[in-house]
Amino acid sequence: MTANELRRKYIDFFVNRGHTEISGKSLIPENDPTVLFTTAGMHPLVPYLLGQDHPAGTRLTNAQKCIRTGDIESVGDTSHLTFFEMLGNWSLRDYFKKEALAWSFEFLTSDEYLGLDVNRIYVTVFEGDNDAPFDQESFDTWVSLGIPEDRIFRLPKQDNWWGPAGQTGPCGPDSEMFYDTGIEACGVNCRPGCSCGKYFEIWNDVFMQYDKQSDGSFEPLPKPCVDTGMGVERTITMLQGKNNVYETELFSGIIAAIEDVSGRQYEENDETIQSFRVISDHVKTATMILGDETGVKPSNLGQGYILRRLIRRAVRHGLKLGIDKDFLGTIADSVISLYRGVYDELKDRRDVIISELALEEAQFRKTLEHGHKEFDKLLPNLQRNPKKIIPGRVAFRLYDTYGFPVELTEELAEENGMSVDREGFDEAFKKHQEASKKGADKTFKGGLADDSVMSTRYHTATHLLHEALRQVLGDHVAQKGSNITAERLRFDFVHPQPMSAEEKAEVEAIVNQKISENLPVSMKQMTLQEARNLNARALFEGKYDEQVKVYEIGNFSREVCGGPHVESIGELGRFKIQKEQSSSRGVRRIRAVLT
Q: I need a labelling partner for 199 at 20 to 30 A (CA). Which of 33, 65, 182, 404 fits?
C-alpha cells in the first residue's frame, strides 16, 4: 500500500462514518505562540477541543503536515524525521472511547482496509496516577473487541498520556496500538514501547478529558473530545515490510536525486547512509516550510532559524558526500514532484522555494569557508586543553564574527574528539542579546525615538503606508519593523523585489488621498482574538497582552498597535517617499517624509 492509498483509505473510512474531511492547516501555528511549528494533527484544532464549535461539525478527519525539531541532530538514524504527516479523526464532544477504539480496531484489522493479523495486535492504556485514574473504560473496550488481557499493557504517564501542544491546554490519557514485528523479545521486560523493534507503534487514540492549567494542575473538561493520530511514514513502512522510512516511496526518489548530483551510492557505507538521510529529510522539511502559505524565510529567529539550520546542515552533509556545487534546488524539485496532487502549494510556490534555497546555500558556503578556516586555525590550541572542551566564548565568537552555527561547531568538535561548553555559549549569547536589546530600547521605544507631535504623525502615517502597500503590491506585504524620528519614518516590509516607479507613485497617491479626506482615528480596547475576528492587522502577535488596542483610520486601516496616534489624518500634511531599497533578503525598506 502506497502513502497516497493509505491517506485515501483512512479518510474515506471515517467519512463513511459521519466525519467531514477538512483540509490540513499551515505548518505555522495560528493560535499557539508557545511552539514554532504545527507538531501534531490536533494542533490547529485546539480552540475546538477547548469548546468552540467547528463550522464543519463535531466529527472531523484529515491529513496534516507536521514538523518536530527537538531531535534534529538525531536525523540520520532509522526512525527520526523532522517533517511527517499525521492522519487523524476527531470527535468534538460527540463519540468517545468505545467508538474511537472500535473504529481503530476495524480499520487496522478489516480485510477491506489494512487487514493486519489480529493476533499480532498489542495495546496500551494509562495505568493512572495522582492526576487521573486508571483508564478502565479503554481497558474494558479492548477486552470486548477480543484483545486478550495479556496483550493489554497498563503504562504510566510517560508512555500513555498526551500532553498539550504547548505548555497548557487540552490533554489526557491515550491508548496506543502496536504490531508485533515477529522478532525476538530483547528480554523479560520487553513490552510495547520498547526500543528493540519488536513492537511497532501504529496508531494512538488520545482522549482529551483534561485542561492543563498554567500552575500544572489538570481540570476536567466538561465535554471530552477524541483526537487520534496515525503516522503516514511509519505505517507504510510497516505495511510495505521495509526496515525504515527511507526505503519507501516517500524517500526513494529523493535519495535517487542525491545519488545523481553526488555521484555516490546511498549504501556505500554508514557515513553515506547518514548523509543521504539527513539531506533527504532536511530538504523535504525546508521545502515544506518555504512552500507554506505563511512565507517563512531563513533568518536568525524563530521558524526562520530552524529553516536556516536545516538548510545549512543539509549543505554540510552534501560537502561530506563531495558535492561542491549548489544542489538543494535539484533535491527540492524531487520533493515537489513527490507530493504533486497532494500538496500542490509546493508546485505553486516552486520559484520561491528554489530561489530561497539557492540564496541560502550560496551564502552558507561562504560562511562555511570562513568559519572552517578560523576553526582550523584555533584547533591546535584547543586540542591542548586536557579537558578537550571548546570554551563557550570561543564558540560564540565563531558564531558572532563568522555566522558559524554553534551546532556545526559542536559537530566539528565531536569529529576531533572534543565537545563544546554549550552553557558558556548560551550565556555569551544571552549577554549579547541583552546588550542589543538595551541599545535598541535606549534609542527607539516601539520603533519611535520619542512621543513628540511629529513622531506621532509619522507613526500614524505608517498605518496608511502599510495598507497602501498591501493594496498596490498584494496581501503578502507585512510589516517587519519601523524606525521613526521627528524628521522621517522608516518602514520595513515583506516584498520579494524592488518597487517600480509606478508602484511608488501609486502608494504615495493613495496615502495622500486618505490624508486629504481627513479620516478620523478611533481606538477600541478588546482581546486579541476579538481583534483577529475583526481582521485587524496584528503585527508581532506574540508580544501582545490579552487586551489590545485596535486603531481604525476611517474604513481604510485597522491595526493592533500600542503607539501614539493623531486624532485625524488631516494633520499629517503631504506624504513623500524619498527612498525604497533592500533591507534584507525578501524585505524592502521605505524612507518617507511629511511636508
A: 65
